[in-house]
Amino acid sequence: MAAELIAVFDGAAKAVVGNRLLMTNIKAVINFIVFSFIPLV
Predict the structure, then answer these.
(1) d(CA 9, CA 11)
(2) What DSSP element (H or E) covers 14?
(3) 15 to each of 11, 20, 21, 28, how far by Cα in Å?
(4) What is the largest CA-CA distance in the chain?
(5) Residue ranges per domain, the chain?
(6) Side-chain half-sphere of 28: how many Cα atoms within 13 Å?
(7) Binning pLDDT at 50, 70 and 90, where does residue 41 land?
(8) Exposure string (b/e) for 14-28, b if CB count within 10 Å is 16 or more?
(9) pLDDT tops 80 at residue 40
(10) pLDDT tens digits, residue range 2-38?
């Protein structure tokens, strides 16, 4: 039982970390696009 809980917690922790990295990448891409198009406007 304890091993199962640890596995679930580990999976949840990895999902949260992955989500944070994904959000950071999306923000970086949006910033890049915005700053790329500002000079054209």
Answers:
(1) 5
(2) helix 2-37
(3) 6, 9, 10, 20
(4) 60
(5) 2-40
(6) 6
(7) low
(8) eeeeeeeeeeeeeee
(9) no
(10) 888 888 999 999 998 989 999 999 999 999 999 988 7
> Residue type for 35, please?
F
**What token pair was written down for 19?**
């989500």
Token digits for 28? 């970086």
Residue 14 token pair: 């990895």
Both tokens of 5, joined, read 């809980």
Here the tokens at position 25 are 């990448």
Token couple for 40:
């054209």
Residue whose pair of structure tokens reads 């091993």 in the numeric block: 3
